[in-house]
Write a structure and sequence with these properties.
alpha+beta, Arc Repressor Mutant, subunit A, three-stranded antiparallel β-sheet, two-stranded antiparallel sheet, 5 helices, about 50% helix
């Protein structure tokens, strides 16, 4: 076990656990790629799809599938059923390049981002001190 910075390390890992718990409560079946794309969009509203490809290392088609799953549209078949998307992001035409798409969080996406931030704040204060 690390003694140097052990308290800070534990506090940070506790915050990460809280975030994962928050996401599992939201949707226990959400895939890690979807979660990553969502976090990048919440962090960078209006991010271009091509920038999501670069940031995630996923293929264009994988990013498109993840954005679709995170949008309001029907996105997958599960046991023969089409399920609605998560309604966390929306993809829009880039106002500066009609061929490109930008992705931004929806109101629900902003709400979830606030819940994630609150989960982190409950676990870690500024400078990694454990919240009491």
């Amino acid at each position: 076990m690390r003694s140097e910075g052990g308290h800070e390390r534990k506090a940070i890992l506790d915050a990460v656990v809280r975030v994962v718990q928050e996401m599992r409560q939201f949707d226990p079946k959400m895939e890690m790629g979807q979660f990553l794309v969502y976090l990048l969009v919440a962090e960078n509203p209006g991010i271009k799809m091509t920038d999501l490809v670069s940031a995630t290392g996923l293929s264009r088609s994988a990013v498109s599938r993840n954005v679709l799953a995170l949008s309001k549209e029907t996105y997958r078949e599960d046991g023969g059923k089409k399920l609605p998307g998560h309604d966390l992001v929306t993809a829009l035409s880039d106002p500066f390049d009609a061929r490109a798409k930008v992705v931004a969080p929806t109101r629900r996406g902003e709400w979830l981002a606030d819940r994630i931030i609150d989960a982190i704040k409950r676990g870690v204060k500024i400078y990694g001190e454990k919240a009491g």
